[in-house]
Amino acid sequence: MMNWKSKKWLIPVILLIGITIVWRSGVLAGDKTQTKAADTALSVKVAAAQYVDIVPSLNFNGTLEGQISATIGAKISGRIEQVLVQEGQQVNVGDPLIKLEAIELANSVRQAGDSVRKAQASYELALNDFNRYQILYDKGAVSEQQLDNAKVKLKTAEADLSSATANQSSTQQQYSYGVISSPVDGVIANRTATVGQVVSPGAALMVVQDINQVYAVINVEQKDLGKVKIGQTASVSVDSYPDTVFAGTVEVMNPEAGSVSRMFRTKIKIDNSAGELKPGMFAKVALSTGSSAQILTIPQSAVVQKQGLYYVFTLEGDKAVRRQIEIGDMMETAIAVKAGLEPGQQVVTTNTSRLKDGDAVRVAQ
């Protein structure tokens, strides 16, 4: 067995081993703490506040209308025999659109013509009789009473002819209404007419719209009325052509607000010679209200609203710090910042609803 003296050398070794174990435990515990902290940091994306050149504008949603829109309806009652056009078809002034059944009208025209011919014959006979009686009266061969009777017959025949002629004109006009023609150049829209349909005067059967020029129709609030002027330039976009901006100008401003909306109906005229824009399309309209200026902007997704105030979270080290800001105009995806940020400051753009002031964050790559 080893004596006490021989065991003395083991004491330093045991102490060294103990110290090493304790130190390793501390290191491992520290690593775990750091790992746990890293795991609890919220993953976010950031963007820098930056200046951009902006043309100040008012933004509206609107609807496209044709410059000229003619509602097509029948002037007489009848049954539709033919519909001669399709929706979207280009037509010119005078082109036939709808034909009504015209058997009765044709008979009426024929009868009116017969009446005119009979009245004309009666008139000519009465005129000849009057002329003959006038000669005989001048010779003393007939009495004045006989001449007056001939004159009365002539006037009656003349009145009958005039009435028959007027009736013929009216009947022919009614007959012409059996073919409904386009009053303007344009494109067929909103066609509801069908073969066999019985129509009454005034009922809308289709619309013809001139779309070489179209209007973007918007409603302007009273507070913005002073910023909108006739001749003002506008940029118009539609979902069908997301990469195209159409130029327009303010042409019409209703001087009276709508009784319900209390807004002012305003029309933006747009050249549409290429035919890309169609009536009924929804449009986004931006009216220029000033010259270009540099404005500090951040993504809209970075802004948090609470109780009427606006905030962002800026990235400071590995922390998200909440800052109050004053916002300006909203753009398509960005928003102007009037105060509270400096150019280049990094703002959090994702997970902002989950953040509190001072929360640990890590920037997603």
From TrEMBL:
Span of domain CusB-like beta-barrel: 214-289
Pfam family, one: Beta-barrel_RND_2
GO CC annotations on file: efflux pump complex
Ranges for domain CzcB-like barrel-sandwich hybrid: 70-210
InterPro entries tied to this protein: Beta-barrel_RND_2, BSH_CzcB-like, RND_pump_MFP, YknX-like_C
Domain of life: Bacteria
Location of the YknX-like C-terminal permuted SH3-like domain: 296-363
A molecular function (GO) term: efflux transmembrane transporter activity
Stated family: Belongs to the membrane fusion protein (MFP) (TC 8.A.1) family.
NCBIfam families for this protein: RND_mfp (TIGR01730)
Name by which UniProt lists this protein: Efflux transporter periplasmic adaptor subunit
